[in-house]
Amino acid sequence: MSRQRRRSAHGGQNRLRIIGGQWRGRRLEFPDIPGLRPTPDRVRETLFNWLQTVIVGTRCLDLFAGSGALGLEALSRGATHCVFVDENRRAAAQIEAHLHTLHCNDGLTLQMPVHTFLERGPGDARYDIVFLDPPFAQGLIQTSIKLLEEKDWLNPGAHIYLETENQLRELPLPANWRLLKEKTSGQVTYRLVAINTP
Question: Contact 42/72 with Cβ under 8 angstroms?
C-alpha cells in the first residue's frame, strides 16, 4: 500500500491481520519502511464485502503492493492468483516471505516500478481485479489508470479498487469504467469501479 503516508499502526506495530477466508486471523509482519502501512481493517472489510460475490476464482493484480495486505486478503478469500508489484526491495521480499509462510503457490512478487510493469503490457495475462493504491499527491493513480486501460490489462467486467487522498474529489475515469462504490475514511477516499462489458 501507499508509501508516502504515516499513520499509527492498528492491530500492532508493523503487523497486519488477514480479516477473512482461509487465513482469517493470521497476523503478519511488514517492514519498517517510512510511510508504509496496510489498508486499515475497516476499509479492507468494506472493500471485500463489496467484492464478496466476485472474488472467488479471480486473477488479481496488487499494484504499489507495500505490505501486500490487499492481495493476500484476496488470496485468502478465494482468488486463484495474485501478482504483487512494488519497487521497494524490502517490501517485495517480505510479501514473498508471507507467501512462503502461508504455503501459497498462487502469488507472484515482482520488484520493479509499477509504471515500468504496466508499460510492457499484459501479454495474455489479463486480470479480473486490480488493487491500486499509490503514494498520494504524485499523479500516480491517474497515470496508472491510463496505462491499465491503454495497455489492455483488464478482462471484461473487471473490478478496480482505487484509493486516494480525499482532496482528490474528481478522478477522471475512462469512458468504459463506471463507479460502483465510494466512501471516505479519515484522509482517504476509496472507490470501486468496474469495466463495462461489451
Answer: no
Contact between residue 66 and residue 137 where contact means Cβ atoms under 8 Å apart: no
Tell me: pLDDT of 8 over 60: no
In a domain, 187, yes or no: yes
The span from the CA of 191 to the CA of 196, in Å, is 16
Residues 6+ apart with CB under 8 A from 49: none
pLDDT tens, residue by residue, 38-84: 778 899 999 999 999 999 999 999 999 999 999 999 999 999 999 99
Please tell me the distance from the alpha carbon of residue 158 to that of residue 65, in angstroms, as a whole number.
19
- Here the cell at position 131 is 488493487
Amino acid at 114: V
Q: Answer yes or no: is 56 within a domain.
A: yes
Residue 3 lies in a domain: no
